[in-house]
Amino acid sequence: QVQLVESGGGLVQPGGSLRLSCAASGSIFSINDMGWYRQAPGKQRELVARITRGHNTNYTDSVKGRFTISRDNAKNTVYLQMNSLKPEDTAVYHCNAQVLVVTAAVRLLDYWGQGTQVTVSA
């Protein structure tokens, strides 16, 4: 009943920029934490950035100063602005959200998007 759809990935040269978007839709009462994760070939999935409903943020060290996470609670959307991209940023980027769903009961559930490919290459 909830879907997360990412967009904005693509091919970019080193030093370039991309802006990823993730829109949540469905039977949503509210969304708590949202985040971006990435997984490169041969590597484990890692947290890139996360943001709380109150807009507190956290970043992995390798992207600090280059990436900015933000959200629009009214649109149930989270963004990741990526600047000064490096080849090591190449990965599939997945959106994650903690969604409060209310039907006959109240449930807090984790949802994942399908991912968007980011490739940084000359």
Topology:
Elements: E1 2-7, E2 10-12, E3 18-26, E4 30-39, E5 46-51, E6 57-59, E7 67-72, E8 77-82, E9 91-102, E10 106-112, E11 116-120
Account of the protein in words:
There is one protein chain. The mean pLDDT is 96. It contains no helices and eleven strands. Strands 2, 4, 5, 6, 9, 10 and 11 form a seven-stranded mixed beta sheet that branches. With 122 residues, it is an all-beta fold. It has strands spanning 2-7, 10-12, 18-26, 30-39, 46-51, 57-59, 67-72, 77-82, 91-102, 106-112, 116-120. It is elongated, with a radius of gyration of 14 Å.
User: Number of helical segments?
Assistant: 0
Give the oligomer, counting copies of the same chain as homo and different chains as hetero. Answer: single chain
**Rg, nearest Å:** 14 Å
Topology as a string of helices (H) and strands (E): EEEEEEEEEEE
Provide the low-confidence segments as ranges.
Answer: none
**Large-scale geometry:** elongated
Query: How much strand?
Result: over 45%
Report the structural category: mainly beta
Q: What is the straight-line distance between the termini?
A: 41 Å
Q: What's the helical proportion of residues? A: under 10%
Q: Tell me the total number of β-strands.
A: 11
Q: How would you characterize the largest beta sheet?
A: 7 strands, mixed
Mean pLDDT over the residues: 96
